């Protein structure tokens, strides 16, 4: 009959497929495709009809009209069409403040309907400065967040299976242990107690101990209660929990909860008792990011558990949707990070004076801080450094501070060295300008995934933060300090993959300051987000890239220092200063595992394509690509830019998407999207799956030369780089 265009209005594409097969010169358009968005498919069908000459009455299909570009080039647009305006912004306001910003005297007089000679020459610049400062202050105040503990409703839940209770020998006879055993049993679990000592903080030893317990559903560890020092600033609790977390991850079918007592404060009347145990909370927030498949959460317990507390503990362990819980007499509380707007009035404003001590003072952040303090009124700044001689940057900083009118002392020595620090404070006590403030900005990084960390690697990071601040608190007790400020990190409250040791160290600072404030001592812990021009995020590309992927923007140094002054003047205790895209107290909960259900009934090859698309979508999200089309299916993940941290992020996304539980080595075991998709397909659908040989990234082993085999082996082990190749 000469018909060349067909529109299939039905539930699938079977007629379109048949017509295209028998008459390839026709145009066949389905209005619906399985597993796709119906609105999108229909709009695509109408657009296809339109481009093939069929008239469409667009006014009845859509009320939206878009201005298409005047040239046919494909492009990506990143900029908004109009600037973002505040809710109170009005055209008249904008015109007025534009006149002020430009210091247009005539325009200002006309706007106010007054004479141009009404003494405006001095008023207008002042008003312009005020407007600028107000806008800057509004931006700075938008960076303020704080921790909050919100009440959780009591629920009744039950446990199942065997639960291992890990008890440190330091608390073998603690009544809290018996209370926990009773809680597990009363909640429906089968409690199995394992007593551990310092020598048991070994991954392989704990794997064996857990295996001896038989089939285990979950683990509740009290190891964090042991705050005895193992080495340096590493407690038995931290070392043991690290080894236990590694062992549980190796077992992979367990859920690990870690308990503390007095490690957090839920309100003004709740004194934080143990900053040492608080380190476990920084550690745990990172474990939640890296190992969500086995990490259950953190729970802070009272010294004894009554019937209600035991019920609340069981509810937490059974999965009440919270992974950071504090159990108190009134009820359970969940951890949150919330905005901290400025609601009260500032004090007279904190101003530096006399002598100010800055640890890490010759570093990038310390130098910026020193200049800010001198500009604010500090007469004498003492900058500690581990370097035994001046470097050009230190010399330049000293000269710049001296030019501002300050006396500068470079104090050489490790801030963890008691002898060196004692001598420094003795000299400060004899100085004509009294010591009035201490700023602890020193810190070191030794990043690594939990599976690779050791107690020794914790020690180096904890020393610069924890050991040093203990000495500062002890030796500074005899001085009349107006400020005791610790530079903490966003990793301590939000967790940062690869930074369990750094998060633990900074969580200690936050806890110590909270304890100081409860006891009536000055203290401020600034939980910093990344700085743009300085700091570890700016100096360490891996850290900077990870933060960029998470959407956390860097703070300009001038604004950050303004925010610091604001926090001091407002009398903050622990404040988060970060430009966050949103706030949350825990990692996003895994989605319901409906991916497999959506693919039921499809053929193996079609299903493989869907799985591959899912992998590409998640790869693009992790790497920050514009979409899955940018992901080459047979390109190795390491060549595409993955590192150990992004590998774990991809694994976590795939696990959440599919409901499967792949190990942390998943990316290295299946080193490109095609091979990974084939593995996922096989695990989801078994013998009915498309085989790995069908994957576009599959290679015939006997066709590989030696160099390619070496490259595959290196990718599989996670090794890369010129040093490895040369070896």
Measured between the Cα atoms of the first and last residue, the distance is: 72 Å
Name the average pLDDT.
85
**Count of individual beta strands:** 19
Strand order of the largest sheet: 5-4-6-9-10-11-12-3-19-18-17-16-13-14-15
Cα-based radius of gyration, to the nearest Å: 31 Å
The number of helical runs is 27
Poorly predicted runs are 584-593, 695-703, 716-727
Silhouette: globular
Give the biggest beta sheet.
15 strands, mixed
How much of the polypeptide forms β-strand, as a percent range?
Answer: 5-15%
* Residues in helix, %: 40-55%
Structural class: alpha/beta
Question: Summed up, what is this model?
Answer:
44% of the residues lie in helices and 14% in strands. With 727 residues, the protein is of the alpha/beta class. Helix 8 (236-251) runs parallel beside helix 9.
